[in-house]
Amino acid sequence: MAEYDYDVLIIGAGPGGYVAAIRAAQLGLKTACAEGRETLGGTCLNVGCIPSKALLHASEFYDAAANGTMAKMGIKVKPELDLATMQGQRIDAVKGLTGGIEFLFKKNKVDWLKGYASFKDAHTVEVAGKTVTAKNVVIATGSSVTPLPGVEIDNAKGVVVDSTGALELTSVPKKMIVIGGGVIGLELGSVWRRLGAEVTVVEFLDQLLPGMDGDVRKEAAKIFKKQGMTLKLSTKVTGVSVKGKKATVTVEPSAGGTAETLEADVVLVSIGRRPNVDGLGLEAIGLERNQRGQIETDHEFRTKIDGVWAVGDVIPGPMLAHKAEDEGIAVAENIAGLTGIVNHDVIPGVVYTMPEFAGVGLTEEAAKERGEIKVGKFPMLANSRAKTNHEPDGFVKVIADAGTDKVLGVWCIASVAGTMIAQAAQAMEFGATSEDIAYTCHAHPTHSEAIKEAAMAVTGKPIHI
Ligand code: FAD
Ligand code: NAD
């Protein structure tokens, strides 16, 4: 009889966990995945990437009809919102994709252990009252919303909500206050602004989108303001009170000063996410967490406890689905005795608004701290395809090492920046110079030509400006 029930047991079936499970099974390991949710796919498929993109995509069409973009192209329509149908297609998208993971588990012979798992020792886990043993256990429990002290989130009531509640609203709020001008606040704030809400974003810092390049952050503020959002930067929320269906939000300057109150029908709390470890029984295996509550690993995703590994949002690094997926593949390969690697220096990030904001590698500020750099910039207004499509906002910026010309970072604001950034990530993965990108033939007319032109601008020679 085998020493353990499984070669690998993965805790959590989000992009980190389900991908690790499938790859482990593909590599011939006997694999199980414990998931407490009703459906597989984690935050990403159930209440994150996918449902938010379903609403962003649909509301973008509505906005294009309502804000005159379609009229500019000779299509005059007065859109009528059928929110129930819009929400229905979101639910369908989630159902289809989470069901798809269940199918892939069956196809690859991954056992889904239904329930929340808790460690008994490093090789023994309890799931829904049953004890299961495994030679290797991968923690892929993901993250959940960071609460704002003193502010009670009640998604069922629908007044003070987190991202999950903001995805499920059944009517368009007249006034919405978004606490936190990060990715979730801007994506979901955009959805409801497009559908008719007056949206105010309250951000603690002096710019939106922390972590992104400084020029991108400044441009983001201009673009979102132009689209009709009210931005209260350098402002903190000190309290939220709810009376019936109305909320009163008290804010004051981040540095201190006079407080003011704002009224809203819906308040979205989106100030970040924190790792999920409650109830996991980490104390039973003596696994400590760092100051941010994350589980630390080495480059192979091993924790300090022999046989226990971790990937995804629960470990340090950007909380992104594709980062979790790549780590899921790598951890399974490492467990199987292969060499699984993730290059954490080249992980693209995308904000899926209109236009999209995307970047990979170093910001200009971080690159300058490391040494001499050259920067090439090209405006989307001078890109033939963007101009023709009535998408004038944005630019591409290529940052290269002044001595070697190696590309250190690429930043794009464009309608399809999320798609454009893939070529920059691939170029950087291959160690490209700005000259390599500048001399790569790009199809015309495409938005991606702006990346070529920004690379040409690194040496001062773009053609179209
Ligand atoms: P998760 O997806 O959080 O999955 C962890 C799973 O583990 C959960 O299903 C949970 O139920 C389960 N679990 C936890 N504890 C236990 C336990 N003890 N036993 C059993 N199961 C357990 N990222 C992007 O890259 N692109 C996007 O467009 C994007 N949009 C987002 C939009 C929103 C609104 C949100 C909230 C997030 C978004 N993200 C996006 C982030 C992305 O969802 C996460 O980075 C990603 O899901 C992390 O994957 P993970 O596998 O580490 O964890
Ligand atoms: P975030 O870290 O992107 O933004 C949070 C913002 O809230 C920051 O700008 C921060 O300065 C601000 N903030 C913090 N405390 C505040 C306070 N008291 N008052 C006002 N502002 C305050 O976090 P998020 O938007 O909640 O997203 C969480 C995670 O989910 C992110 O790490 C992100 O990577 C991931 N996510 C990714 C995508 C995507 O890839 N498109 C989409 C959604 C979420």
Detailed description of the structure:
The protein has 465 residues and is of the alpha/beta class. Helices cover 33% and strands 25% of the residues. The protein has 3 domains: 6-145 and 274-335, FAD/NAD(P)-binding domain (3-Layer(bba) Sandwich); 160-271, FAD/NAD(P)-binding domain (3-Layer(bba) Sandwich); 349-458, 2-Layer Sandwich (Enolase-like, domain 1), CATH 3.30.390.30. The chain contains 15 helices and 22 strands. Strands 1, 2, 3, 4, 5, 6 and 17 form a 7-stranded mixed β-sheet that branches. Strands 8-15-9-10-11 form a 5-stranded parallel β-sheet. Nicotinamide-adenine-dinucleotide is lined by residues 148, 179-185, 187, 202-205, 210, 236-237, 270-273, 318-320, 349-352.
List the helices and strands and how they pair.
Layout: E1 6-11, H1 15-26, E2 31-35, H2 42-47, H3 49-66, H4 69-72, H5 83-107, E3 111-114, E4 117-121, E5 124-127, E6 130-139, E7 143-145, E8 160-161, H6 163-167, E9 175-179, H7 183-194, E10 198-202, H8 214-226, E11 230-232, E12 235-243, E13 246-253, E14 260-264, E15 266-269, E16 273-275, H9 282-285, E17 308-310, H10 321-335, E18 349-351, E19 356-361, H11 364-370, E20 373-379, H12 384-388, E21 395-401, E22 407-414, H13 417-429, H14 434-438, H15 449-458
Parallel strand pairs: 1-2, 1-6, 2-3, 6-17, 8-15, 9-10, 9-15, 10-11
Antiparallel strand pairs: 4-5, 5-6, 7-16, 12-13, 13-14, 18-19, 19-22, 20-21, 21-22
Bound molecules: flavin-adenine dinucleotide and nicotinamide-adenine-dinucleotide (NAD).
